[in-house]
Design goal:
The complex is a heterodimer of chains A (276) and B (283). Chain A is built from 14 helices and two strands. Chain A is mostly helical. A two-stranded antiparallel sheet of chain A has the order 1-2. In chain B, helix 5 packs across helix 7, helix 7 packs antiparallel against helix 10 and helix 10 packs across helix 14. The model of chain B has no long low-confidence stretch (mean pLDDT 83).
Chain lengths: 276, 283
Amino acid sequence: MPGAVLFGTVIIMASVETVWISFFDWDGVGAKTWVGLANYLELLGDPQFYVSLKNNLIWLAVFMLAPPIGLALALLLNQPVRGMRVLKSLFFVPLVLASVTVGVVFTWFYDPTFGLLALVFSAFGATAPALLSDEHLVTFAVVFAALWPQIAFCLVLFLAGLNNLSEDLIGAGRVDGARGLAMLWHIILPQLREVSFIALAVTVIGALRSFDMVAVMTSGGPFGSSQVLAYQMYEQSIFSYRFGYGAAIATVLFVIMAAFIAWYLHTLLKPEQEGA
Amino acid sequence: MYPRPIADDAPLKRGLYIGLVALVLILWLVPLLAVMATSLRSFDEVMAGNYWGWPKTFNFTENYTSVFTQTAMARYFVNSLLITVPSVFGVLILSTLTGFVLSRYRFRSAQLIFALFVGGNFLPAQIMMIPVRDLMVELGLYDTYYALIIFHVAFQTGFATLFMRNFIAALPDELFQAARAEGASAWQTLVHVVVPLVRPALAALAILTFTFVWNDYFWAIVLTQSEAVKPVTAGLNNLRGEWVSSWNLVAAATIMVAIPPVAMFFLMQRHFIAGLTVGAVKG
């Protein structure tokens, strides 16, 4: 079991150690000083923590658009037309791009003088807001960029789901006169329940883990207004040499995600246990 | 099939449909198309603010040559390959071994290990950052290829094992009974029976791992520092700071970062989609 051993030592031990470090005051090099819960108490009084938390919630809320848009695109593309395979693949492209690439591409898209957004605004005689330097809009700008590959991911999942629909049920529905939205709601969606669940889970995790796009597009700025927990942790540890404090932030993020992962595993493993 | 297929005898409807899809596709890819177009522009054109129109001059060779000669992009590119390729092989080998054990041998804690793998894969990377970084510093591996290779192998093995386990568990039991009846050892069964049968799964896993490792940014900036080791993702972000107004060069570099995973994707598209959906659907 070399795989399990490697995975176990590096991943699990590291996670546990982080929780341990969160009880110390440590600059990453010198001696650690035990401070108990002081890091957590400081976190509770840190306004930046609430900004990050709020931004994580914004990520979560906006990311919830990904599954429905992915489904809509999947419904549009699920047609047996010649050349459709190539078209579908082109829709998948954002998924395989590095987040750095997506970040660079969208930074440009938002450029206030020459960006496409600015051109659209000026076509209507308005001036585009400098999205990435506006502390109220910046998080939305970053999330919408991150939404692009996320929608592609949901699209892949839903297309696979649409391929496995039961023809009998659809046929029966058609006989009963179900059409359009009624058909979608009563016959198609129930069959897509499992896929939808996965798309939702993947999206929630993606929203909570968000780091790359923030780092590439704004570095958390302006004035920390676009930071998320993952980025705040990185900044506190690497730039401010406050490893204990960073570890505490990581632990909070971990607890939030662990709750979600536990729920996910619980739901996922249930049918397997019933089957066995 | 849902939605109802567009009939073959309705060419007008078909035409409209294709037109609609093409329109949506262009809107969908606009940001990327613009970067491609800009990677062909001249510097003067970029300065004049032509970011989105059709390029007036085509500077394909000039731009891409200068990315290679004037920036460290070639170095980053080689670094990325030196990190990604060994990682992919490491992951394939370890996950096949572990997946084999988890799928064939029933032991009490199998479910727990399985859960640990899934859970571990979904953890935020930040929870591991400080200890992993420390460990690499202590081992003297910080800022070397090995730091990234070891970490990626360890991390991706979680997802990959799960993937291989599901695939191997789906093989018929008779196969394994027959192998045992022939007196094959577990090792022989693995090499001569399992591996040839799971080749498609290995292909899928190889391309997924390649994409994940190639596209990684977080660990690239946490575990490396010097130009000589940095992979393309971290390199691109540096380059953006250095060449602020030379958007045509940055665009060319961006396209270069995107090409390997996109090329892999188109070459092995079927495997990629199958891998992604199986991996996600089965957990």
